[in-house]
C-alpha cells in the first residue's frame, strides 16, 4: 500500500471519529431544546458587560447584553440574570440597540432548565446559531471524509513515463 | 471586518468549486477511453521550469507513440511526466519504457489526439480534492454568515 492510501485511511478514520463527535454534539443540543422549557419573561433591567483583551498597543473589547429577568414557573415568581450568546466586537452600538429593543418592562421568550429554573438561556430556538458548534464539527468531518476518499483515488498506482 | 472575511472565504470557496467542477467535467465526465499505446521511439528533451521565481532547465523523456482509437491509427509525440535535473537521469528513467513496449493512455473519443497519462482513479481523486475544499469552504462561509447575524436577545 502506498503513502497516499495509508494517509487516506488515517484521514478517513479521523473523519469518522469527528463525525461521531458531531452527531453527539447535535444530539446534546436537540436534547437541550427538547428539555429546556420556553417561558415568557419580563426584563427588569438591561446592561452592557464588556471585556478587554490584548496588550496596551493591541487591545480589543468584546461586549455582551445582560438582562435581569423575572418570570413565573408553576405559580412561583423567579428572578434570574442572563447574558446574550452574541459576543460583539469593536463598539457597543449593536448591544445598545438590543437593550433598546428589550427595554425594562418588555417581554420575550427565554428558556429555563426544568431541573433548576434559575438557569436561563436566551437564544435556544431551532436556529443555526444553536446548532453552530455541532455544524462546525460535522462540516469538518465531511471535509475529512472527502479528503480521505480523494487521497484513496489519488493513491491509484501511477504509471510514470 | 467580519463581512469582509466571510465574502473572502465565499470567493475562495467559489473559485475552488468552479475549478473543481470544470476539472471534474473535463477529466472525468467527458469519458476518456483507455487504449494501449506502442512506443515507437524514445528520446530526451529539455524544458524550462520555475521554482520559487527561479527558471531552471530540466529534462524529460520524449516518446513517439502509436495507438488505435475509433478504428483509426494515431501517431503522436508525447512528453514524459517525470522531470529530471540532467539528461542522463531522464534517459535512465525512460529505460522502463523501451521502444516496442505498450503502455496505457487515455484519450477523448471526440478528439483522440487529446491524451493524458493519469488513470481515471487518479484524475477523479484530484478533482474530488479540489471540489471538497471548495464546497467545504463555501459551506463554512454560509454558516459564518448565519452566525454573524445578530441574535434576538
What structural class do helix, strand and pairing data of chain A support?
alpha+beta
Alpha-carbon distance between the termini of chain A? 21 Å
SSE topology string of chain B: HEEEHEEH
Oligomer: heterodimer
Largest interface: A-B, 37 and 37 residues
Overall 3D geometry of chain A? elongated
Low-confidence stretches of chain B: none
- Quickly give the CATH architecture of the largest domain in chain A: Beta Barrel
Count of separate DSSP helical elements of chain A? 3
Q: Biggest sheet of chain A, open or closed, and with what strands and sense? A: 6 strands, antiparallel
Q: Count all strands of chain B and give the number.
A: 5
Provide the gyration radius of chain B in Å: 22 Å
Helix content of chain B: 40-55%
Question: Mean of the pLDDT scores of chain B?
Answer: 90
Q: Give the tally of structural domains of chain A.
A: 2
Strand content of chain B: 35-45%
| Average pLDDT, all residues of chain A | 90
Folded structure, characterized:
The complex is a heterodimer of chains A (161) and B (153). By secondary structure, chain A is α+β, with helices and mostly antiparallel strands. Chain A folds into two domains: 1-35 and 126-161; 37-123, OB fold (Dihydrolipoamide Acetyltransferase, E2P) (Beta Barrel), CATH 2.40.50. Helices cover 43% and strands 35% of the residues of chain A. Chain A has helices spanning 3-35, 93-101, 128-154, and strands at 37-54, 59-73, 76-83, 88-89, 107-113, 116-121. In chain A, strands 1, 2, 3, 4, 5 and 6 form a six-stranded antiparallel beta sheet that branches. Chain A is elongated, with a radius of gyration of 23 Å. Chain B has 153 residues and is α+β, with helices and mostly antiparallel strands. Chain B has two domains: 1-32 and 119-153; 38-108, no CATH class. Chain B has helices at 2-29, 87-94, 120-148; strands at residues 33-51, 54-69, 72-79, 102-108, 111-116. A five-stranded antiparallel beta sheet of chain B has the order 3-2-1-4-5. Chain B is elongated. The model of chain B has no long low-confidence stretch (mean pLDDT 90). At the A-B interface, helix 3 of A face helix 3 of B.
Amino acid at each position: 500500500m502506498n503513502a497516499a492510501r495509508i494517509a487516506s485511511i488515517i484521514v478517513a478514520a479521523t473523519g469518522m471519529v469527528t463525525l461521531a463527535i458531531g452527531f453527539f454534539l447535535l444530539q446534546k443540543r436537540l436534547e437541550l431544546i427538547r428539555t429546556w422549557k420556553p417561558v415568557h419573561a419580563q426584563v427588569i433591567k438591561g446592561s452592557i458587560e464588556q471585556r478587554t483583551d490584548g496588550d496596551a498597543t493591541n487591545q480589543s473589547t468584546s461586549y455582551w447584553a445582560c438582562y435581569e429577568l423575572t418570570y413565573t414557573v408553576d405559580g412561583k415568581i423567579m428572578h434570574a440574570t442572563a447574558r446574550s450568546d452574541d459576543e460583539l466586537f469593536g463598539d457597543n452600538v449593536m448591544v445598545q440597540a438590543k437593550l433598546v429593543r428589550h427595554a425594562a418592562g418588555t417581554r420575550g421568550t427565554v428558556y429555563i432548565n426544568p431541573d433548576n429554573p434559575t438557569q436561563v438561556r436566551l437564544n435556544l430556538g431551532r436556529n443555526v446559531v444553536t446548532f453552530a458548534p455541532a455544524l462546525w464539527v460535522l462540516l469538518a468531518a465531511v471535509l475529512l471524509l472527502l479528503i480521505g476518499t480523494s487521497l484513496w483515488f489519488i493513491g491509484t498506482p501511477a504509471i510514470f513515463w | 471586518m467580519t463581512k469582509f472575511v466571510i465574502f473572502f472565504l465565499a470567493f475562495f470557496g467559489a473559485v475552488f468549486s468552479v475549478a473543481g467542477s470544470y476539472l471534474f467535467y473535463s477529466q472525468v465526465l467527458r469519458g476518456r477511453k483507455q487504449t494501449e499505446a506502442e512506443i515507437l521511439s524514445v528520446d530526451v528533451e529539455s524544458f524550462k521550469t520555475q521554482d520559487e521565481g527561479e527558471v531552471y532547465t530540466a529534462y524529460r523523456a520524449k516518446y513517439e507513440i502509436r495507438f488505435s482509437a475509433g478504428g483509426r491509427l494515431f501517431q503522436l509525440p508525447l512528453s514524459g511526466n517525470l522531470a529530471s535535473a540532467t539528461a542522463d537521469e531522464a534517459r535512465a528513467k525512460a529505460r522502463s519504457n523501451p521502444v516496442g513496449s505498450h503502455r496505457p493512455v487515455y484519450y477523448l473519443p471526440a478528439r483522440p489526439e487529446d491524451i493524458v497519462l493519469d488513470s481515471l482513479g487518479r484524475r477523479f481523486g484530484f478533482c474530488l480534492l479540489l471540489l471538497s475544499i471548495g464546497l467545504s469552504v463555501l459551506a463554512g462561509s454560509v454558516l459564518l454568515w448565519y452566525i454573524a447575524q445578530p441574535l434576538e436577545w
